[in-house]
Amino acid sequence: MQDTPATPSPAPVTPMSRRFRGFLPVVVDVETGGFDWNRHALLEIAAVPIDLDAEGRFILGQTACAHLEPAPGLEIDPKSLEVTGIVLDHPFRLAKPEKEALDHVFAPIRAAMKRHGCQRAILVGHNAHFDLNFLNAAVARTEHKRNPFHPFSVFDTVSLGGLAYGQTVLARAVQAAGMEWDSAQAHSAVYDAEQTARLFCTVANQWPQPATATA
């Protein structure tokens, strides 16, 4: 007689899982070798899962980031490197192959999803589909099987910043929200992701939670 397989335990119902229909917002910023996700290399990625404090307010979780080796066959526009300041052969860059870099960034996101009882991550970004397209292209190239992100839905802080402050440029929206902006650190994936995450939290914390999220 065969044993009946154990039924998987249902995911816990948490304030975060109720708030966004089972999605965990994760802020992502990428730095790239150009604007074409099918042709230009992914060079940096940073991800900030959104968390909740003891009062139920949105806060930044722990940032995960990686520098990437340009994938074989992809191009890098020198003008993009001038903007980002990335030095590809810098001895302390410690770049990872794409698959390894995705593993490094995805693992803490999946851990945060499990902690909050969320089924998927949803990408939050400034011009979010730019970041999502580069991420999806890297996932496809590496045939990665554990991508936690929804394949096409996003939260875009361009829209949130325009709605809340009348500003669609990230630096201006951040400043309109009462925070500092350091132009010298801009175009670093970590800095831009964390500033975008602060903007998202500031806007979201001003918005009353729907009754379905607190019931």
Chain-wise SSE layout:
Layout: H1 15-19, E1 23-32, E2 42-52, E3 58-60, E4 64-67, H2 78-84, H3 98-116, E5 120-125, H4 128-142, E6 149-156, H5 157-165, H6 170-176, H7 189-206, H8 211-214
Parallel strand pairs: 1-5, 5-6
Antiparallel strand pairs: 1-2, 2-3, 2-4
Helix pairs in contact: 5-6, 5-7
Describe the structure.
This protein is an alpha/beta fold. 39% of the residues lie in helices and 20% in strands. The chain has helices at 15-19, 78-84, 98-116, 128-142, 157-165, 170-176, 189-206, 211-214, and strands at 23-32, 42-52, 58-60, 64-67, 120-125, 149-156. Strands 1, 2, 3, 4, 5 and 6 form a 6-stranded mixed β-sheet that branches. Strand 5 (120-125), helix 4 (128-142) and strand 6 form a beta-alpha-beta unit. The longest helix has 19 residues, at 98-116. The mean pLDDT is 93.
